[in-house]
Design brief:
about 40% helix, 6 helices
Protein backbone atom coordinates (compact mmCIF):
# COMPACT_ATOMS: atom_id res chain seq x y z
CA UNK A 1 0.00 0.00 0.00
CA UNK A 2 1.17 3.50 -0.70
CA UNK A 3 1.65 5.82 2.26
CA UNK A 4 -0.92 8.27 3.46
CA UNK A 5 -0.40 11.82 2.22
CA UNK A 6 1.84 13.98 4.39
CA UNK A 7 1.53 17.71 4.74
CA UNK A 8 2.35 19.44 1.41
CA UNK A 9 6.04 20.17 0.90
CA UNK A 10 6.76 23.52 -0.77
CA UNK A 11 7.49 23.03 -4.46
CA UNK A 12 6.80 19.28 -4.43
CA UNK A 13 4.19 17.66 -6.66
CA UNK A 14 2.35 14.50 -5.64
CA UNK A 15 -0.44 12.36 -7.02
CA UNK A 16 -3.29 11.72 -4.60
CA UNK A 17 -5.49 8.65 -5.04
CA UNK A 18 -8.66 9.71 -3.23
CA UNK A 19 -11.15 6.90 -2.79
CA UNK A 20 -14.83 7.00 -1.91
CA UNK A 21 -14.47 4.88 1.20
CA UNK A 22 -14.42 6.27 4.75
CA UNK A 23 -11.21 5.93 6.75
CA UNK A 24 -10.76 2.55 8.35
CA UNK A 25 -12.60 0.46 5.77
CA UNK A 26 -10.58 0.33 2.52
CA UNK A 27 -10.28 -3.08 0.85
CA UNK A 28 -12.79 -4.64 3.24
CA UNK A 29 -15.63 -2.55 1.75
CA UNK A 30 -14.70 -3.56 -1.79
CA UNK A 31 -14.41 -7.22 -0.77
CA UNK A 32 -17.82 -7.37 0.93
CA UNK A 33 -19.55 -5.44 -1.84
CA UNK A 34 -18.05 -7.74 -4.44
CA UNK A 35 -18.97 -10.83 -2.40
CA UNK A 36 -22.59 -9.90 -1.75
CA UNK A 37 -23.55 -7.79 -4.75
CA UNK A 38 -20.87 -8.48 -7.33
CA UNK A 39 -20.58 -4.71 -7.80
CA UNK A 40 -17.63 -3.21 -5.95
CA UNK A 41 -17.61 -0.46 -8.56
CA UNK A 42 -20.86 0.91 -7.11
CA UNK A 43 -19.01 1.80 -3.90
CA UNK A 44 -15.69 2.96 -5.32
CA UNK A 45 -14.75 2.54 -8.98
CA UNK A 46 -11.13 3.41 -8.18
CA UNK A 47 -10.81 0.58 -5.65
CA UNK A 48 -12.73 -1.80 -7.92
CA UNK A 49 -10.18 -1.20 -10.70
CA UNK A 50 -7.04 -1.18 -8.59
CA UNK A 51 -7.58 -3.50 -5.62
CA UNK A 52 -8.40 -7.14 -5.00
CA UNK A 53 -9.71 -8.42 -1.65
CA UNK A 54 -6.11 -8.90 -0.51
CA UNK A 55 -4.62 -5.58 -1.59
CA UNK A 56 -3.45 -3.41 -4.47
CA UNK A 57 -3.23 -5.17 -7.82
CA UNK A 58 0.35 -5.76 -8.96
CA UNK A 59 0.08 -4.06 -12.36
CA UNK A 60 -1.30 -0.87 -10.80
CA UNK A 61 1.33 -0.93 -8.02
CA UNK A 62 4.15 -1.28 -10.57
CA UNK A 63 2.74 1.58 -12.66
CA UNK A 64 2.50 3.93 -9.68
CA UNK A 65 6.00 3.01 -8.50
CA UNK A 66 7.44 4.11 -11.86
CA UNK A 67 5.89 7.59 -11.80
CA UNK A 68 8.24 10.50 -11.22
CA UNK A 69 5.98 11.98 -8.53
CA UNK A 70 5.26 10.54 -5.10
CA UNK A 71 1.89 8.78 -4.87
CA UNK A 72 -0.30 8.89 -1.78
CA UNK A 73 -3.57 7.18 -0.98
CA UNK A 74 -6.29 9.06 0.90
CA UNK A 75 -9.82 8.27 1.97
CA UNK A 76 -12.40 10.95 1.13
CA UNK A 77 -12.76 12.19 4.73
CA UNK A 78 -8.98 12.55 5.13
CA UNK A 79 -8.80 14.51 1.86
CA UNK A 80 -11.59 16.80 3.06
CA UNK A 81 -9.80 17.46 6.36
CA UNK A 82 -6.31 17.94 4.92
CA UNK A 83 -7.12 19.86 1.72
CA UNK A 84 -10.41 21.63 2.53
CA UNK A 85 -9.14 25.13 1.84
CA UNK A 86 -7.27 24.19 -1.35
CA UNK A 87 -10.20 22.08 -2.58
CA UNK A 88 -12.65 24.95 -2.10
CA UNK A 89 -10.38 27.16 -4.20
CA UNK A 90 -9.64 24.54 -6.89
CA UNK A 91 -13.15 23.07 -7.08
CA UNK A 92 -15.68 25.83 -6.24
CA UNK A 93 -18.58 23.51 -7.06
CA UNK A 94 -17.07 20.69 -4.99
CA UNK A 95 -15.34 17.52 -6.09
CA UNK A 96 -16.91 14.08 -6.32
CA UNK A 97 -15.07 11.02 -5.06
CA UNK A 98 -13.25 8.89 -5.99
CA UNK A 99 -10.76 10.92 -8.00
CA UNK A 100 -7.08 11.38 -8.75
CA UNK A 101 -5.65 14.77 -7.89
CA UNK A 102 -2.25 16.30 -8.59
CA UNK A 103 -1.15 18.49 -5.68
CA UNK A 104 1.62 21.06 -5.81
CA UNK A 105 2.81 21.61 -2.26
CA UNK A 106 3.22 24.81 -0.38
CA UNK A 107 1.47 26.85 2.27
CA UNK A 108 -1.53 27.04 -0.08
CA UNK A 109 -1.26 23.87 -2.21
CA UNK A 110 -2.70 23.97 -5.72
CA UNK A 111 -4.90 21.03 -6.68
CA UNK A 112 -5.51 19.79 -10.23
CA UNK A 113 -8.07 17.13 -11.05
CA UNK A 114 -6.38 14.38 -13.08
CA UNK A 115 -9.26 11.87 -13.27
CA UNK A 116 -12.79 12.67 -12.09
CA UNK A 117 -15.30 10.39 -10.40
CA UNK A 118 -17.43 10.43 -13.54
CA UNK A 119 -14.49 9.32 -15.66
CA UNK A 120 -13.55 6.58 -13.18
CA UNK A 121 -17.08 5.21 -13.29
CA UNK A 122 -16.83 4.78 -17.07
CA UNK A 123 -13.32 3.30 -17.28
CA UNK A 124 -13.63 -0.38 -18.29
CA UNK A 125 -10.30 -1.75 -17.03
CA UNK A 126 -6.99 -1.05 -15.33
CA UNK A 127 -5.07 -0.55 -18.60
CA UNK A 128 -7.51 2.16 -19.69
CA UNK A 129 -7.04 3.86 -16.32
CA UNK A 130 -3.25 3.69 -16.67
CA UNK A 131 -3.45 5.16 -20.19
CA UNK A 132 -5.68 8.04 -19.04
CA UNK A 133 -3.55 8.86 -15.98
CA UNK A 134 -0.39 8.81 -18.10
CA UNK A 135 -1.92 11.12 -20.69
CA UNK A 136 -3.12 13.60 -18.05
CA UNK A 137 0.16 13.61 -16.10
CA UNK A 138 2.18 14.22 -19.27
CA UNK A 139 -0.17 17.10 -20.12
CA UNK A 140 0.65 18.58 -16.68
CA UNK A 141 4.40 18.23 -17.25
CA UNK A 142 4.97 15.06 -15.25
CA UNK A 143 6.67 11.95 -16.62
CA UNK A 144 4.37 8.97 -16.62
Amino acid sequence: MFPRAPEPIPGQRALLLVDNVPSGFGPAVVFWCRLFSGRASAVCPLRALTYSPIGMRARWRRYLAKLDVPVYSLHRDAFDRRYAKAATKAFPDGVAFPCLVLVEGGQAPALRLIVSAEELASIPDRESLIDLVSERLVARGTQA
